[in-house]
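Below is how a single chain appears once it has passed through the pipeline. First comes the sequence as given, then the structure the pipeline wrote out for it. We keep one example in the README because the format questions we get most often are answered faster by looking than by reading.
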Amino acid sequence: MHGYGGPGPQGQNWPPNPYGAYPPPPPKAGAGSVIWALAPLFTCGFAAPFTIGYAAVRRRSALLGATAALYASGIVAWMSIVDAYDDQDRLPAGPGILMVAGMLGPWLGATVHSLIIRERVFGPPPPRMTSGNEQAIAMAQHRRTLRQQARELAGRDPLLAHDLRIGRPDLPRQYDDGGLVDLNHAPVEVIAGLPGMTLPLARQVVAARDSVGGFVSAEDVAAAASLPPHLTPELAEYTIYLS
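Resulting structure:
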């Protein structure tokens, strides 16, 4: 297929996002997120590795994962020192500092940390990075879906299809049909803009249309207007035939 997407409907400034102009608002962090953030405080720090680990998974963050491991190491260090020294009054300075850090870090530090990142953790997930080619493919697939939906609508309700001006990019309209062209009603200039078409070939189509009164399919057009065979798949993709 060629890169033809068809003219969009007039009367709107259509956004580059092919999936809609108005995405839903991001979810707000609720009461559950507050409980999550305060879990290290209520558990004397023992929940810190799990709280921050959950944040790491949810945000796909290696840094948060490393921080969760650091909190876990602090808890292990704290418990190991407490177990190793029965008399805390004779605890050496080095292990004493490490024990306090291992206790307060996962307890108070992780609580403050969780409160700071709460909105980010419970907000929408980070968008997946896509290349320009992936975006182009997504747009083309979306336009194809719009064309199929427009054809189905026209099959169910031809009068509504006329009212929506499906296949008539030359007329003001709001409905986006994905770039369809109604070969039974569109002017020669619009037909000439179809993939593979030229102005002389478009004139042949219009002349054949005037002669036979209209078409029912791409094969019908190709036969009636004596078009090159390679154009038939293009016409089948981008045209519609309203009565």
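Residues 133-240 form one domain.

See the next section for the split statistics.
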